[in-house]
Amino acid sequence: MVDLSAPTSAPLATAPSRTEAGPSGRKPRRSISRANIFLYGTLIVFALYYLLPLYVMIVTSLKGMPEIRMGNIFSPPMEITFEPWAKAWSTACTGLNCDGLSRGFWNSVQILIPSVVLSIAVASVNGYALANWRFKGADTFFTILIFGAFIPYQVMLYPIVILLREMGLYGSLTGLVLVHTVFGMPILTLLFRNYFTSMPEELFKAARVDGAGFWGIYFKIMLPMSLPIFVVAIILQVTGIWNDFLFGVIYTRPDLYPMTVQLNNIVNSVQGVKEYNVNMAATILTGLVPLTIYFISGKLFVRGIAAGAVKG
Q: Which CATH architecture has domain 106-260+287-308?
């Protein structure tokens, strides 16, 4: 009689599992090492180098003039006051007018919005056409645009003055909007062209097979996929146009000066006491718009630059 409870054969040897054998691959590096200390130490030093002037500006703008005259520019304010900010915005003298930066701010807004919208709209269509629709003379047109991106602005100042005068736009906000739109076109067209070139060509061909035309492909396919490069274009244009001084002082008249020209008139005023707290407050107020735009959309800016500036 056969004993069924007895094992019929020796048990098979099993291979050790991955967990029993231990982890494989390279040993992870220590988080604290000489290289990391040097790297982060260098980054901290440079960060402090760039943040220190901003800190001095902020604390100075919150001090009164008696405290500023004590001489310690790095000390925090003993008594915080926002009077310099109010004066910089509404009552500081910018030449013959004493209405602060408020008038220049609204002038800058009227210049900024149409300039950004027009330049990005036209440049995006140009880049889309150059990337996907190979029309006759496209290479020549693109070469002229790129050549225009490297012409120094100073060379074009006087010819543009004559051109705007003949058009009846010299000294007006409309003329300055036109100048910013034209000068922003070359670099923006290059960015959009490279970005659209990096997109899969099969999308464009499939849309063409389905019967979509020039504007259908642009609005329904290219535009929804182009948020990062549009953010890059917005940041570049907002920063360049808002911070512009040269075009603003040449192509407009005093009552239409943008905020940067008003700031220059406040800081370089030689009448009366030099109010450093008002000057610092006015400087911070002038730079708030581009800083806000960048901090809101910084991640998309990096994505768009990587996709639109190094491809194509």
A: Orthogonal Bundle (1.10)
